[in-house]
Amino acid sequence: MRIAASTLINRGASALHDRLLPHVPEAMAGRVRMEQVQSILRMTPVMMSANIVIALLVGLAGLNSPQTAALTLWAALVISYGLLGLRGWVVSQRRKSAKQTVSARGVRRITWQAGVLGCLWGALPILTMPQQQGFSGAMPMLVASVLAGMIGCGGFAMLTLPAAAIAYSSPMVAGALYVLATSNDPILYALGGLLIFCHMVVSVSCLSHAKIFADRLVAAEELEQQRQVVSLLLSDFEEGASDWLWEVDASGAMTYVSDRMAAAAGVDKSQLLGRPMSELCGAAEGPMGPIAALAPLFFDQKAFRDVTVSIAVGPDSEDRQTHWWSLSAKPVHDLSGVFTGFRGVGADITQAREDQARISRLAHYDVLTALPNRLSFLQALSKAWTEHGKPTNKGGSGAGCAVLCLDLDHFKGVNDSLGHPIGDDLLIQASARLRDTVGELGLVSRLGGDEFAVVIAPSPGHQALGDLARAIVQVLSDPYDVRGHNVLIGASVGIAVAPFDADDPDGLLKNADLALYRAKGDGRGAYRFFETAMDVWAQERRALELDLRDALANHELKLFFQPLIGSVEHETTGFEALLRWQHPRRGLVPPADFIECAEQWGLIGAIGEWVLHEACRTAATWPSHLNVAVNLSPNQFASGDLVAQVRSALKASGLAPQRLELEITEGLLLHDSAKTLEQLAALKALGVKIAMDDFGTGYSSLAYLWRFPFDKIKIDRSFVAEMQDNTAIADILRTIALLGQTLNLEVTAEGVETPAQAKLLADMQCDQFQGFLYGRPMPVGDIPSFLLSNLARQMRRESEDDGAAEEAVTG
Ligand code: C2E
Ligand code: CA
Ligand code: CA
Mean pLDDT, to the nearest integer, of 441-448? Predict the structure, then answer.
């Protein structure tokens, strides 16, 4: 029986409970049970006091009744139970513990306690049965109303736990029904019906109320969980992302400012709250372009995205910095659809904007010189072309536009010999000069390396363009002081003018480049306007380049030798090796037509090495008093392995070093490079002689003579050609010869073509002659016969001299 009742209560409690809290996670169910129990606990003092008082009253009413002892015992039991309940309540209040949940067992225990109390009350009608126990009159009425009251009050107090309510009231109804079944009093039937009805109402309302209560608790519980998740996500977002949240009301005043936003604005949160957001932001830029300010966007009440606004960041009005924010927001409406403001995100995009600006700067400007780069040049050119250069402007009022291409002469030499840092500095200085010279006339850009271009639009006319080009060549040719080095370079300029010289911008650039190519081919330091014939010329040059690349491998290069003659005895002292190109189609090509190209195209290194070996090899077959002179190009010094090449040529041929003369030009010494002087010293240390070729044509020839201990100077043939007509030149020559004696240098006169020249030069104390008067450059096979014939000529001249002397004596 007891077991049956306990399973009934337990199962019933569980079943009811499952109905109330279906599919609710245990943690949440525990908290819901806690609320249910709490609500019962709140009623406990009243409930227990009521139990005690009513039991006391019933006990008192039962005094002097047929069941005084039983009723007194019953009242004592109920009162004790009530006191126990009160004590339990006091204890539970005292340890208002951190416990937030109540287990299903806890609910079952309460259900049990309610059931026990219910049973105590259920025993009352049995104890006071009218016939069996000898009661009559008011007692049954008292009991019936007490039971009805207890069922109602208990049901009310235990609304939230229907299982407990039912466990409490059911025994009372059961007791009453038992009494009812054993009597035949119709009034008692009515009483029984009343109790059952009472019980049903209590049970049903209890159940429905408990369901609502539990649902509400679960909903609140779920809402709280949601709130926690959202706030967790939000704080995560605000911490992790660079974005922040903001909110404004319908008037645009800030109602929510996140910490991050306040930090981004550089002020305290409190200074922002309530302030109109548009006041904070300056001019705005939307994806479609600038917007006067943020206010119009707010006014429109429409969602917006990625609007960039400028913000003066910082509290102090003096040193405020301008930052850029990107804002996106949606309008917010209340339940009745009334616009209540905007809610959105923002991010500081200052860094991104700066990066973008930097990238676009990098894309358009040359990093080294800060000049616009090739891309900018092409853009400027195409703009100039559409505005001024189009062929439709031909003959019209359009002035046309022009492109100047220029590059620095000898820049590569400086870069190679002095190093890239100096080369870079030189480029920076040259760029500045170029920009200053061109000024407002056009846009100067660096196309790469030592190549520059200028777009000029509108064109100031042929004359002005020529003047500008000349000014550019001049200003770039002035000496540079680069980190203590005195550097000299030059510049060549090519000019093409639209619409005459080309049909499109590309053609204009190409033709300006051709003109530049021509200017360089014509000896550098010059400017040229484009001419149609240049195209043909350039194609020829291209063909020449291709041929020259094969010349060495095809054994088309030859050395000719031009004799060097002593000025007193007219004996042959040696030969200068002069390069010839025996081209299968072009015939014998003189060095003037290809040496410069070989230098430009980077072929001179290999060719020069071949010349050294060939000259030494040939000279080694000559009588030992004959020297050989070899011309060196400045580029051979730049490559760095010249000394090794000379050493190897001497070794391979077995030629005594003192029989080898190396001829260098002043161009080599233009940049006072330690590296060059070092190599010259190393060459001298090998025992070879160093000659200064074409003396007098360079910049400040005399200065160079002091800088390096040359063995010989060769006076350029232009002096020799002019000396008879120009006394000033004759004076210079005399001074040079004198200087040679002072410095203990051999002096050779080049280009001696007439006996008169020879006579004059001999009088000036020149040591050596070279020129057509004595012999043209000849193939190696002609040397023996030349030597013989010169010997014969020498002897004849001696006998003539003797005869003349005799004549003078005898005459
Ligand atoms: P350069 O070193 O001044 O050579 C002398 C040039 O003057 C030679 O011209 C020669 O033919 C010419 N010449 C000699 N005597 C007379 C004369 O009486 N009258 C006239 N009008 N000219 C005379 P070439 O052989 O055409 O050489 C021209 C230049 O080419 C040389 O001038 C030299 O700078 C360069 N060159 C020649 N061979 C080589 C070489 O193997 N390596 C290098 N780097 N340059 C070379
Ligand atoms: Ca020479
Ligand atoms: Ca010369």
Answer: 94
Q: Residue 773 burial (CB < 10 Å; 0-12/13-18/19+)?
A: middle
Whether the CB-CB separation of 120 and 81 falls below 8 Å is answered with yes
Of residues 538 and 462, more confidence is placed in 462
| CATH 3.30.70.270 boundaries in the chain | 370-530
By three-state DSSP, how is residue 624 classified? coil
pTM: 0.52
Between strands 339-348 and 243-249, the pairing is antiparallel
Residues of the chain with CATH 3.20.20.450: 549-781
Q: Could you give the residue range(s) of every CATH 3.30.450.20 domain in the chain?
A: 241-356
Superfamily of domain 241-356, CATH level 4: PAS domain (3.30.450.20)
Report the alpha-carbon distance of residue 223 to residue 546 in Å, rounded: 85
Residues 6+ apart with CB under 8 A from 775: 562, 563, 565, 786, 790
Candidate from 562, 576, 578 with most ligand 1 atoms within 8 A of CB, to mutate: 578
**Looking at domain 549-781, which CATH architecture does it have?**
Alpha-Beta Barrel (3.20)
Q: Is the CB of 133 under 6 A from ligand 1?
A: no
Q: Which residue has the higher pLDDT, 443 or 232?
A: 443
666 touches ligand 1 (CB under 6 Å)? no
CATH code of domain 370-530? 3.30.70.270
Cα angle value 642/629/676 (rounded, 5°): 30
